[in-house]
Amino acid sequence: MLLTVTTTHGPATDLGYLLVKHPGRAHAFDVSTGTAHVVFPEADEQRCTAALLLDVDPLRLKGRPDAFVLGRYVNDRPYAASSLLAAALSRVFRTALRGDSRDRPELAGTPIPLEIRVPVVRCRGGAALADALFAPLGWQVSAVVLPLDPDPASPLAGDSNYVDLTLTGTLRLADALNHLYVLLPVLDDAKHYWVAPDEIEKLLRAGEGWLADHPERHLIIRRYLAHRRALADSALARLPVDEAAEPDSVDDGPAEPKRPLNALRREAVLAALAQTGASRVLDLGCGQGALLGDLMRDRRYTEIVGTDVSSRALATAERRLRLDRLPERQRDRVQMWQSALTYRDDRLRGFDAAVLMEVIEHLDPERLPALEAAVFGHARPGAVVVTTPNVEFNARYEGLTGMRHPDHRFEWTRAQFQDWAHRVAAAHGYAVEFRGVGEDDPALGAPTQLALFTTRKESA
């Protein structure tokens, strides 16, 4: 099976640096199902193409549940792109998938023109599914259905379940490769290996920054995790809070889906803000802007500022909120600032309230004092709403090992969170109260814990 990646970004041969493969050489890698080869059929200053060819050894396809005795040898696995190719992609282009480049670090973080072609993909859902999966990610999609037999007079004439897929767009190479890593098995709707709970970590890592906001995320999660409902629900629950959306369950059965935790969390934050009477609000660490959208829909908030250390997240939030399409009067209520919460920023002073929704757990514990000084000490809003996961509740998530998200640096028990909040409140002149968010377990508490800090003058 074959996959090619082409760029015309000058000099185009820099593609070799991004992939960590020399364009003038042939590269071979032993993978679990055969041998993966990387070659560059064209490589000059104007245009460069890297080709990944996977040579599958049928004897290595262990444990396939084929319906007939020769199914291990007579199948489409050596020819049609699937999870086999995704696994080879991860093995061969591991550094590029992470977005790392020792020789071209700036280029690794820059969108470049790309054309990706996979000549044969098994696509259970046809060309329309390929378009539905890739188009929302910024790709122009060409998915040509392959005929069973090109001869119209043949008894096998008609469409097959395979497409010739070509993607064109201007994206970071790391993003492009992660899209393929997740979506090739989703198109095929089959995996060549047993899907264990650690697949959730792989999915969240590869889907960071795009999966949670994808309109087909439920189908993607369900198929990637081989329709194992418990794993799929756990994966959905762990998507970044500012990106995930309903429903909370990815099962298609008749059962009434639970209210999604992220929606309950935003409602709890909005209720706490309403209690303070705030009208000028900061969303600190706003990510892709889910809470900002709720704030914009509430007329009581006359000035709304979203901040994030990531310019990419801010740009995504602006697109998601369609700020460029708002009437001028509404647009003037909202501002987006790039700012790091561990540094003092004079622009953040004087606001009625600030929100740190699922933010603190993304900081190394030794950086928390800097955040406390910058937010509670220097910016000193009239009220601060903080939410963070309750690690005790993690026992309810089947298949979860470790923390809820790969980027979490810590997760606290209720006692640890309250100890931290009381210390911060005492140090900076606030009072604090606590609430649980989501389903409350008598022994474990709620999945999310919320603290509302108010200045002592306001709380009197």
Automatic annotation (TrEMBL):
Methyltransferase type domain: residues covered: 282-384
Protein EC: 2.1.1.386
An example Gene Ontology molecular-function term: small RNA 2'-O-methyltransferase activity
GO biological process terms, semicolon-separated: regulatory ncRNA-mediated gene silencing; RNA methylation
InterPro entries for the chain: 3'-RNA_MeTfrase_Hen1_bac, Hen1, Hen1_N, Hen1_N_sf, Methyltransf_12, SAM-dependent_MTases_sf
Pfam family, one: Hen1_L
Entry keywords, A to Z: Magnesium, Metal-binding, Methyltransferase, RNA-binding, RNA-mediated gene silencing, S-adenosyl-L-methionine, Transferase
Keyword Magnesium recorded: yes
Residues covered by the Hen1 N-terminal domain: 1-239
UniProt cofactor(s): Mg(2+)
Catalytic activity: small RNA 3'-end nucleotide + S-adenosyl-L-methionine = small RNA 3'-end 2'-O-methylnucleotide + S-adenosyl-L-homocysteine + H(+)
The keyword ATP-binding is assigned to this record: no
Domain of life: Bacteria
Stated family: Belongs to the methyltransferase superfamily. HEN1 family.
The name this protein goes by in its record: Small RNA 2'-O-methyltransferase
Native source species: Spirilliplanes yamanashiensis
